Amino acid sequence: MSRSVEVLRTGASVLVQDDGRPGHAHLGVPRSGWLDPDDARRANRLVGNPDDQAVLECLLGGLRLRTTTAMTVAVTGAVCSLTAGGRAVAFGEPVSLAGGDELVLGTPVSGLRCYVALAGGVAVAPVLGSRSTDTLSGVGPPRVQVGDVLPVGPAVGDPSPAEGVTRSRQDGVVLGLWPGPRADWFADAALATLTTATYVVDADSDRVGLRLDGPSLERRRAGELPSEGIVLGAVQVPADGRPLVFLRDHPTTGGYPVVAVVDVADLGRCAQLRPGDEITFRWRAAPRRVSAEVG
User: 65: closest CA among 22, 4, 5, 127?
Assistant: First the structure.
């Protein structure tokens, strides 16, 4: 019998994600991929998969799956209750399911995204070398829907014991910053404000970007930019002056100035931020100060 899982419930949203498809920005295709690499890779290691196998990224839990054959699964990311085959099981550890068993994820009490790894990986057809769903461009497999039967590859490794505490509680999040290509478009006071003010995650945030409420950043330079390349983690400042952190499904170009770039080591924390959560920024290197006014 082929290895697969049937989707009985999806909750808010379920996407297939791996490490994404870098190298296609010149085609207008974002990198995409899982938002929280640490927890996604941890889930893979728990079930004996290579780090790069595709997993299910579940927004606010709520997923319900039924297996066709025996397989090992693991759930990491935002901590939630789990039942497997009708019994409560441990979060963040390998779980053995028999054929016909159901895996049910509850709603996380903190954090936002759960990662479900299946031994053998989610084996949907890759697009441009990746199985990731890109919510901005529409490249990759479609969103997972109730009634889908997802193929699962052959298991290749042995399950591993739990490795440390999964990261979903987000009290006092601090994101490191590197100066962006347009830091000199902003007043010195604005650069100071960016790393002293507290910003609040807006409800209009998604996999494209983390929108923030807080003090506006005053420009020292008027005018508009021609569209230029956007990188993962870019902190763009739209016309209202409030910063926006671009995540994995970000556009490949943009016309608003990029004041900073979030350190890649901190970006995974953005995956678990809920609307209303507070964050602060800290410079990892001081931006170049421009003393002369620019017209």
Answer: 5
Q: What is the mean pLDDT of residues 8-34?
A: 93
For 28-38, how does the pLDDT look when each residue is reduced to its tens digit (9 = 90+)?
888 999 999 99
Reported as a single tens digit per residue, the pLDDT across 65-94 is 999 999 999 999 999 999 999 999 999 999
Sign of CA dihedral 289, 278, 166, 50: negative
Dihedral, CA of residue 151, residue 157, residue 161 and residue 167, to nearest 10: -50
CB 11 within 8 A of CB 63: yes
- Residue 288 in tokens: 């170049």
Residue 44 scores a pLDDT above 60: yes
CA 34, 39, 41, 42: dihedral to nearest 10 degrees?
Answer: -160
